[in-house]
Amino acid sequence: MNLARQAMKRALTAVLPRDRFLVSGPMSSRRDRSGFCDGRTQAEIALTFDDGPHPEWTPAVLDALASAGWKGTFFVIGERVEQHPDLVRRIVDEGHAIGNHTYTHSAPAETPTAMFLDELRRTHDLIEHLTGTSTTLVRPPLGKLTGGKFRGLWTAQQTITLWNVDPKDFAMCAESEAVTWVRSYGLRTGDIVLLHDRLPYAAAIVRALSQTGEETVRSVAVSDWLPASASSGMVLEASHA
Ligand SMILES: [Zn+2]
Asked: Is the bond preceding residue 85 a cis peptide, omega within 30 degrees?
C-alpha cells in the first residue's frame, strides 16, 4: 500500500465513525493491553480471512480457530459461497463473523460503482438466504474504493472494513514463513490482520499465534468491536449511479 493511500486511511479513520470505516479496533496501543497478575498480558486482535470459502483451507482455518477458542471474520466471495454453502453455514454456526467481499472479486479499476454495489447486494442476499445472517461488513477487493463506491456504501450504512496488519500470506511459500512472520509480529490490541483462507498459510499463522509463549493473545470477530446497532443489517439497494 503506498504512502498516499496510508495517509488517506489515517485521515478517514480520524473523522469517520468506526461502524462506517474500520481499519483497526479500539485500544490500538501496547499500553492498553490488560495485564494478568502473574505478569502476562493479553492482546485482543481480529484475524480476518478473505477470498473464501475454499474446500480445503477454510476448514483448516476453522479447525485452528476452534482449537484456540478464537473467533475470526470471513470476507467471502459470492460465487464461492454458491459453490460451498456448507462451509458458509459452518462459519456462522461456529460463531464467526461473516463479511461481504463482492460476488466475483471484480477488479476495482474495471468495475463501475453500480456493478460493485450490485455484486455486494447479490452476495449479501446469498449469505442471508443460507445462514439467516445479514451482514453489514464489507471489504472491497484489494481494499480499494472510489468516491462513488464509498458514497454508495455510506448510503447503504455498510461498515467498510480494512486492515492495519498485512503478513502478505499470499506471497508465502512454506509454513516456516508463516511461523517466522508470527515471531516478528509486533502484536498490538486492536490490530486487524489480513489473511486469506483461499491459501494454505492462514491456518498455520492462526496455529503459530495461538501457540506463542511470549504473549497471551486472542482473536475476536470484527463485529465485536462495533456498536450493536451496526449489525442490524440494512439491505444494500441496487445503485442507479
Ligand atoms: Zn480479496
From this structure: no
